[in-house]
Amino acid sequence: MRLTPVLLSLLMLASVPAHAEGPLRERLKARYMERLQDGESAEEGARVYKAVLPGTQKQTVSYGADPLQAMDVYSPVNARNAPMIVMVHGGGWRTGDKANSGVVENKVKHWLPQGYIVVSVNYRLLPQADAYAQAEDVAAALAYVQKNAATWGGDASRLILMGHSAGAQLVALTSADPSVVTSRGGRLWAGTVVLDSATLDLRATMTQKRVLPLYTNAFGSDPKRWAQASPLERLTPQAVPLMMVCSTQRKDRPCDQADTFGRALRKLGKPAPVQKEDKSHGEINKMVGVPGPYTDAIDAFIAARLGQALGAHK
Questions:
Q1: What value does the mean pLDDT take over residues 173-180?
Q2: Cα separation of 164 and 160, whole Å?
Q3: How far is Cα 205 from Cα 252, in angstroms, rounded to an integer?
Q4: Structural domain boundaries of the chain?
Q5: Which Pfam families does the record associate with it (predicted)?
């Protein structure tokens, strides 16, 4: 039997005496909790999606100088004025990749036959870049996609941003205050789909009784900085409409923060549906594009947003 990192951590934890108070047990517990939070083991993350649908064109382009500042562009042959999905992977701000199977496979299979272009984005990771720098990368990547959409046959005015887990926090932040994109020469986009972020109110996350190292590693311990990375505190009247999907299976109750953020968006007159799903954190991502009511709900939000004129966010 092949041991995954999560199973290995559990076995190691079980081998430590229950009375032990040392740092090893606490590190193992923290690592296990972080794995549960991220919802994807390193083994799963290593399965890079390589199969491209017949007739699909794939190209990898850079939007910055760092090797991780790159994106994969999947497009139908002879795409012209195509709507676009821009996907930002998760991984606890430390791991993950734009080509992971759970990130792109079902999305490419679902949206490319409908004439969409799917773009999957990488960004710098911990420890090289904290979450603040990662948000800057996502904003730069989105502005780059908008500027170059036409060269791939895409329509920048019909663009949906999407992200999962840590990527969901990054796209929610970008959508709450789109000036980080417009200041780079980009413009408002049609809407954003946030796939199971538990950190839409970062101050609430960072002031819990027990804060996972997952968060302190990404956001630091200085309360003065937390507002910079909190979608709720960065919310502006220019915010892009959001659909928030949250798992009802998680012990940390991400739907509570989704409800709070949704109410704040709706007070600004922005569409902000909250889709509560009886799925795991990983399934929330991997099952996007699988035929059924879940994908139908996301499709309905996207169709409604793409039906709106650019800039007419209600």
A1: 98
A2: 14
A3: 10
A4: 1-38, 53-306
A5: BD-FAE (PF20434)
Q: What is the DSSP string of 143-154?
A: HHHHHHGGGGTE
Q: Which two three-digit tokens encode residue 271?
A: 């569409």
Question: CA 309, CA 190: separation in Å to the nearest integer?
Answer: 8
| Distance in angstroms (rounded) separating the CA atoms of residues 157 and 75 | 17
- What CA–CA distances, in Å, run from 116 to 56, 72, 160, 192, 202? 11, 14, 10, 16, 33
Phi, then psi, of 154 in degrees rounded to 5: -100, 165
Choices 3.30.450.20, 3.40.50.1820, 3.40.50.1100, 1.10.3300.10: CATH for 53-306: 3.40.50.1820
Residue 241: cis peptide before it, omega within 30 degrees of 0: no
Paired sense of beta strands 70-76 and 56-62, if any: antiparallel
Q: Dihedrals φ, ψ of 12, to 5°? A: -65, -40
Per-residue pLDDT at 51: 72
Residue 288 CA to residue 27 CA, distance in Å, equals 33
The tokens for 116 are 């969409």
Least confident of 13-22, 71-80, 124-133: 13-22
